[in-house]
Write a structure and sequence with these properties.
This protein is α+β, with helices and mostly antiparallel strands and 83 residues long. It has two helices and three strands. It has a single domain, classed as 2-Layer Sandwich (Mth169, Chain: A).
Length: 83
């Protein structure tokens, strides 16, 4: 079976996000004063060929832990659907 995983990786809430802070400031400078506390992350889409959904979830979890996310500084969440 083919699966599609949508992975979102964001900085840990307790850590500063200098890029997000710069974007927040820039948005306010162009007249969007209502915007506050922007956080910048990454979105990754991968396709995986596995026998079942549970195996696909385990493989995506392994990819996130071993390569895609720095667990000291980032958190991740993902959704998987068949395709």
């Amino acid at each position: 079976m083919k699966f599609k995983a949508e992975i979102d990786i964001m900085p840990q809430d307790a850590l500063l996000d200098p890029q997000g802070k710069a974007v927040t400031s820039a948005l306010q400078n162009i007249g969007l004063s209502e915007v506050e506390n922007v956080r910048i992350g990454r979105h990754i889409r991968i396709f995986i060929d596995c026998n079942d959904l549970k195996t696909a979830e385990l493989k995506v979890e392994e990819a996130c832990k071993k390569l895609l996310a720095n667990q000291i500084m980032e958190k991740y969440d993902f959704k998987i659907e068949s395709c």
